[in-house]
Design the sequence.
């Protein structure tokens, strides 16, 4: 089987997995919105109606607006977000495949990893929800791919956008700056320039929102639920609590 044929087969397999998960959870009674989904859906409907949602420093702001845009295109149907997020899962599989190939993995190994990634039922379930994990994962992989190919400013901008979806990346930004500065063992000035470009990219997206928050609320910063997410993970060893 040629590389192109394997790629088509991988994407088809991922699409079939999405369809299967969709029909499993759309069988009557249809799955209700759960936990944070209820909040994102309610905020998206307020935004669609021309209203605004009160700002706080716990809920990252972008995902509700992302959902609102997709609901607006689909006439309020949840099918719109589900289809777009399904496409983001397929894109994530392609990005993972490209990253593995760039890291030196063989074509067959990279294809196998991407295929296993795309048939993961938990991953496909998140694509059929209103939680931010699917968009966040796609942005992380896209930012990593840009960073790996030397597009440091673009990587920073994408990483900054990911912080506005889910703030878990925030403690790792210094590590990413170090990776940008040291990849390929450039000279000191070049490494410093790369790290600065990464930081500038983050500032263009996440930093702009931080400045806006400061002007509106008097507090400069972006929403950060990372400590809560860490606490929930440590306190819930079974992984069953919201």
Sequence:
């Amino acid at each position: 089987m040629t590389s192109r044929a394997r790629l088509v087969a991988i994407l088809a397999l991922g699409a079939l997995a999405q369809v299967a998960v969709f029909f499993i959870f759309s069988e009557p009674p249809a799955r209700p919105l759960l936990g944070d989904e209820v909040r994102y859906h309610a905020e998206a409907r307020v935004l669609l109606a021309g209203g605004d949602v009160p700002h706080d420093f716990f809920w990252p702001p972008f995902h509700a607006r992302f959902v609102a845009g997709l609901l607006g295109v689909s006439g309020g149907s949840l099918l719109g977000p589900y289809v777009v997020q399904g496409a983001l899962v397929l894109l994530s599989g392609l990005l993972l495949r490209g990253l593995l190939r760039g890291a030196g993995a063989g074509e067959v190994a990279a294809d196998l990893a991407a295929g296993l990634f795309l048939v993961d039922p938990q991953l496909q379930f998140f694509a059929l929800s209103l939680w931010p994990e699917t968009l966040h994962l796609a942005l992380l992989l896209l930012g990593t791919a840009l960073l790996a190919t030397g597009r440091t400013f673009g990587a920073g901008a994408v990483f900054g956008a990911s912080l506005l979806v889910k703030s878990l990346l925030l403690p790792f930004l210094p590590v990413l700056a170090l990776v940008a500065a040291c990849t390929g063992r450039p000279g000191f000035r070049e490494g410093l320039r790369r790290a600065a470009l990464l930081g500038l990219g983050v500032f263009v997206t996440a930093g702009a929102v931080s400045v806006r928050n400061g002007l509106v609320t008097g507090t400069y910063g972006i929403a950060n639920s990372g400590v809560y997410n860490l606490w929930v993970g440590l306190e819930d060893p079974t992984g069953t609590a919201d």
